[in-house]
């Protein structure tokens, strides 16, 4: 049941989605416990180090120049400001610091500052993650030399639906960057977004694309679309509330991700601020073991540290860093 496979078929993944809900969650919980601590969740913080002005036309994104959201574009943050934010995140309990820049791809002139950010955050003892758009082999190598732990580059949706969401790059472009990241020896963080008006078959295709990669992503973020007025999908779905993914279906997606990619960290990402505590609890039961903390993700709202701490206390969940520390102390 907990065997790691890369040969999943769409039919097998569809069959998992079709299981009775309690049976699916039970199976996912068994797989989770075979590979991960049952009640430990990694706390990560996400910072936008360069906001807006992206030339890509991703239909979900308010940082695109094609969106009319009034978001003001900014320049790349100063390295010292980024490191200060990382220190604050660590003080709040985060063990992983993720930095995102709204670029199609970074310019070579930006890389020295990016490298210093990675080195500085790692020097604090935190895991590092970057999402900067598409990378060349050289740029991936520079990030690897700096000690970057993870690179995030989402496939967003199923391959056959990709062109309906984004037209300025291809699905194959995404895979090429993932190959550069892998070849450089950096862990891959790769997931996507659900609730964009897709069908269950599309969600099957999305997870199939991830679960059949030569090596599963070490981190799989599952985002629920946060519709933003002025974006293509935000405007399109604003008047069709039924297009929003059902919370039970969202939990099913998390559970299937856990079963098909048993060793990966499965992260609840965007959209969590609008989920009930009960839905989040079901996601943790189904194998999610990483969240973003804080009041804000890149540009959209998030649940907030206090609310997360209260939920963890109710559920008996420990932040992963604290759980590891307690385990070490118990062994001494």
From TrEMBL:
EC number: 2.8.1.6
Pathway: Cofactor biosynthesis; biotin biosynthesis; biotin from 7,8-diaminononanoate: step 2/2
Domain of life of the organism encoding this protein: Bacteria
Top EC class of this enzyme: transferase
Cofactors (names): [4Fe-4S] cluster; [2Fe-2S] cluster
HAMAP family assigned to the protein according to its UniProt record, in alphabetical order: BioB (MF_01694)
Protein name: Biotin synthase
Organism: Sphingomonas canadensis
Classification of source organism: Bacteria, Pseudomonadati, Pseudomonadota, Alphaproteobacteria, Sphingomonadales
Gene: bioB
């Amino acid at each position: 049941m907990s065997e790691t496979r890369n040969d999943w078929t769409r039919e097998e993944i569809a069959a998992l989605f079709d299981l009775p809900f309690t049976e699916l969650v039970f199976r996912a919980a068994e797989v989770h416990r075979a590979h991960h601590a049952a009640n430990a969740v990694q706390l990560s913080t996400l910072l936008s180090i360069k906001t807006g002005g992206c030339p890509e036309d991703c239909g979900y994104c308010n940082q695109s120049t094609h969106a009319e959201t009034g978001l003001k574009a900014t320049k790349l943050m100063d390295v010292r400001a980024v490191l200060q934010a990382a220190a604050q995140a660590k003080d709040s309990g985060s063990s992983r610091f993720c930095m995102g820049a709204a670029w199609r791809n970074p310019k070579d002139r930006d890389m020295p500052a990016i490298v210093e950010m990675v080195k500085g955050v790692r020097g604090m003892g935190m895991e590092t993650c970057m999402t900067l758009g598409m990378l060349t082999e050289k740029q991936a190598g520079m990030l690897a030399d700096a000690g970057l732990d993870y690179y995030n580059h989402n496939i967003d949706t199923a391959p056959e639906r990709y062109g309906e969401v984004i037209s300025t790059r291809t699905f194959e472009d995404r895979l090429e960057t993932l190959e550069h990241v892998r070849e450089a020896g950096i862990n891959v963080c790769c997931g996507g977004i659900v609730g964009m008006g897709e069908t269950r078959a599309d969600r099957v295709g999305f997870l199939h694309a991830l679960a059949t990669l030569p090596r599963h992503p070490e981190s799989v973020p599952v985002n629920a679309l946060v519709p933003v007025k002025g974006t293509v999908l935000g405007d399109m779905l604003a008047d069709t509330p039924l297009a929003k993914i059902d919370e039970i279906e969202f939990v099913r997606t998390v559970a299937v991700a856990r079963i098909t990619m048993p060793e990966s960290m499965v992260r609840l990402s965007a959209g969590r601020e609008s989920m009930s505590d009960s839905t989040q609890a079901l996601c943790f039961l189904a194998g999610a073991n990483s969240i973003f903390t804080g009041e804000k993700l890149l540009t959209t709202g998030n649940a907030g540290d206090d609310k997360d701490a209260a939920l963890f206390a109710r559920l008996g969940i420990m932040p992963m860093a604290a759980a590891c520390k307690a385990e070490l102390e118990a062994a001494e």
